[in-house]
Amino acid sequence: MARAVTRKASAQLRRVADDEPIAAPKPADDRPPGRVDSPIDGYLRSLWDRYVDERSGEVANYIPELAKVDPDRFGICIATTEGRVYEVGDCGVEFTIQSISKPFTYGMALEDRGRDAVLAKIGVEPTGDAFNSISLAPDSGRPLNPMINAGAIAAASLVAGHSPEDRLHRVMGVYSLCAGRQLTLNEEVYASERDTGHRNRAIGHMLRNFGILEGDPEPDLNLYFQQCSINVTCRDLSVMAATLANGGVNPINGERALGAEYVQNMLSVMTTCGMYDFAGEWLYSVGMPAKSGVGGGVIAVLPGQLGIGVFSPRLDPRGNTVRGVKVCRDISRDFSLHFLRAPRASRSAIRAQYNVADVSSKRMRVERERKTLDAQGRRARIYELQGDLAFSSVEVVIERLIGASNALDYAIVDLKRVSAIEEAAAGILVDLFVNFNVAGKVVIFANVQGHSQFMRMLESRMMTPDLQSRLLTFGDLDPAIEWCENEILARNRSGTESSEALPLAEHSFCRGLSAEEIAVLEPLLAHKTYAPGHFIVHKGEVADAIYLLVRGAVSVVVDLPSGQLKRLSTISPGMAFGELAALERAVRTADVRADTASECFVLPADTFDDLGDSHPAIKLKLQHNLMRNLGLIVSRLNQEIATLAG
Fold first, then answer.
1. Angle between helices 102-113 and 149-157 (to 10 degrees)
2. Parallel, antiparallel, or unpaired for β 306-311 and 75-80?
3. Is residue 33 part of a domain?
4. DSSP label at residue 585
5. Same domain, 420 and 285
6. In the 8-state DSSP scheme, what is residue 439?
7. Three-class SS of residue 401?
8. What residues contact residue 151 under an 8 Å CB cut-off, 6+ apart?
9. Closest Cα partner for 458 from 430, 489, 420?
10. Would you state the pLDDT for residue 469?
11. Taking a C-beta distance cutoff of 8 angstroms, is the pair 272, 202 a contact?
12. pLDDT at 141 (0 to 100)
């Protein structure tokens, strides 16, 4: 798949095991933070570069005004049903819509007259003939489909209105609703079409002869010439296509332009007849309902997902834009957009999103750290993805990340519930990683196991040592969140990591104790040290002590049936553990293991009880601190539950 960045170099990913100690974060580079470029914009730029030097084909010259267009104009635009627009090149240059108007007028005819009345006058069979062929059913004179000129003239005759002005106003109104802006009529092109449209005029009289047109054909011919002469831009075309993809509702402003029940009929004839005698090859290689015009435009529609507009005036012998056909073919191939490609059932790609201020890791933090994370944790955001990731689903993901990028330093993309990542989607995610890092930000991938193709693509794109050092992948979401927390704390100098033990007086268990009371308490405590990996507490033993951690890190762990250990929480210096079970003399329900070299003050449960007789004021303060700390933990858990439930 073509991408904005194509240079490749081998690199090894840094994979972080679930039980690997989290290293101190590397300081970010000094690039100024800014909005991240979209990988889709980068892809379109590379696609534009690929074909900008394509000079084959000729502009339409059978209509004098069309021959005056600059043949080298070139624009590509994609609009999604979510209302986002990606564009490159000459997307704001106006040109006339020409035959791309045909499906929209056909839709109006269906709305105004109903299917039965329209089918009585216009068929839906492909002809395999050129756009201006005289393809009429021999028995009835009915045009074979509404995409050839004969059928389009018949469709124009069915647009409702009390006068020619009313009918033109209706056409202009619907086209403008589809485009999301007020369109205008190109009077010069209209006059040129009217004065040179002898073949179309002959078709009109043949239709009148068979009773397909009722009365003088000139008003209907004039409306057809006018609809073909409406000015549009490449951006307009993409939005009009996206309106069809969105069931007739403009995805930019939410206004309904066409009835949903008729859009499927419009897309059906676009699929089989929209590219005339190229329709079969188009359906085979591109696989999207489409319509071209001799003004140099082409639209393609992927129902429910997006619309494509391309503008390039040089035409092939069939009257289709040369660059436009190639661009649509590449987009369809690169993003796997062929509408007959059977996708697996999909849901919204983003299952949940939240930030580190609202949902924390299993690393329990002291109050100072927690305040920092509450204040700065919104700079790190988690995106849990799900289902099959294809172009349309991953586009929503990257736009969500890019939209939040100004307020982010770190984005965690969790792939745990992703069942498959298509190659096109994988490429977009890789480009997102690169673009985030160019902007001085970090994308972290969690639960990457099982997505080997994506991993290989990541490896191949690590072009510089800096990118290699910034690429972090985790086997689980929790250590990824913890890494971000450590990064934020390090930046704000709020971490508790220190080679020195925390003084007992600064421990949260001793909050509010005077120096004299500390002097009373300290001799009652046993001072113990533990080597990394040492089990301090064992599951199943009777709890008989409260542990006050003053250095290092310890984790509460349980055995899994697989024989592996699962971390339930990690305790930081300044926090206590084992207190609830000790107060109740209950059985320990989990093991506690030293992750690093650690130190604890240990208060026997019996000694704590005896304080009630010897120093009731001290015991009261200690009980208050225990309740306060537990209250903070419960409050934090409630907040996280509410966030995840929402």
1. 40
2. antiparallel
3. no
4. T
5. no
6. T
7. helix
8. 102, 106, 122, 123, 143, 144, 145
9. 430
10. 67
11. no
12. 75
DSSP secondary structure letters along 372-391: HHHHHGGGEEEEEEEEEE-H
- Comparing 36 with 6, the larger pLDDT belongs to 36
Q: Do 469 and 587 belong together in one domain?
A: no
Q: Give the E-state strand segments of 447-564 in sequence order.
A: 472-474, 526-530, 535-537, 545-551, 554-559
CATH number at residue 453: 3.30.750.24
Q: Virtual CA dihedral for 110, 116, 122, 126, nearest 10 degrees?
A: 90
Asked whether the predicted pLDDT for residue 255 surpasses 90, the reply is: yes
Question: What would the two tokens of residue 498 be?
Answer: 């220190």
Q: What CATH number is given to the structural domain containing 285?
A: 3.40.710.10
- The pLDDT value recorded for residue 277 is 81
**Residue 54 counted as domain residue:** no
Q: Is the dihedral of CA 336, 338, 341, 347 positive or negative?
A: positive
Tokens representing residue 39 in the block: 């990988």
User: Residue 363's beta-bridge partner residues?
Assistant: 570
CB 69 within 8 A of CB 204: no
- Domain span at 91: 69-334
Please say which residue of 286, 304, 334 terminates a domain. Answer: 334
- Per-residue model confidence (pLDDT) at position 496: 56
In total, how many domains does the chain have? 3
Tell me what the pLDDT averaged over the chain comes to.
Answer: 86
Q: Is 192 exposed, middle or buried (0-12, 13-18, 19+ CB in 10 A)?
A: buried
Question: Which of 512, 319, 296 minimizes the C-alpha distance to 309?
Answer: 296
With beta carbons less than 8 A apart as the criterion, state whether 273 and 264 touch: no
CB neighbours of residue 58 within 10 Å: 13
**Type of residue at 551:** R
Q: CA 242 to CA 302: how far, in whole Å?
A: 8
pLDDT of residue 217: 93
Q: Which of 298, 313, 334 is the last residue of a domain?
A: 334
Please check whether residue 81 lies inside any domain of the structure: yes
In a domain, 55, yes or no: no
Is pLDDT of 95 > 50?
A: yes
Give residue for tokens 């005289």.
134
Q: Residue 201 is which amino acid? A: R
Residues 353 and 293 in one domain: no
Same domain, 464 and 606: no
Which positions are catalytic?
99, 102, 224, 276, 294
Please say whether the beta carbons of 82 and 396 come within 8 A. yes
The bridge status of strand 290-292 relative to strand 231-232 is: unpaired
Instruction: Quick: pLDDT tens for 178-193.
Output: 999 999 999 999 999 9
Judgement on whether residues 271 and 128 belong to the same structural domain of the protein: yes
Residue 190 to residue 160: CA distance in whole angstroms: 21
Interval 20-69: pLDDT, tens: 433 333 333 443 446 688 899 999 999 999 999 999 999 998 888 888 99
Contact, 266 vs 299, CB < 8 A?
no
Residues 441 and 517 reside in one and the same domain? no
Cα gap 228→172, rounded to integer Å: 11
pTM (global) more than 0.85: no
Residue 14's pLDDT is what? 35
Strands in 177-230 per DSSP E: none
Closest to 491 (Cα-Cα) out of 31, 21, 26: 26
Query: Which phi and psi (to 5°) does residue 343 adopt?
Result: -85, 155
* pLDDT surpassing 80 at residue 640: no
What the block records as the tokens of 311 is 């503008």
- 445 with 568, same domain: the answer is no
Q: What is the CATH number of the domain that holds 543?
A: 2.60.120.10
SS3 track for 108-176: HHHHHHCHHHHHHHCCCCCCCCCCCCCCECCCCCCECCCCCHHHHHHHHHCCCCCCHHHHHHHHHHHHH
**pLDDT (0 to 100) of residue 458:** 79
Q: How many residues does the chain have?
A: 646
| Statement to judge: residues 267 and 206 lie in one domain | yes
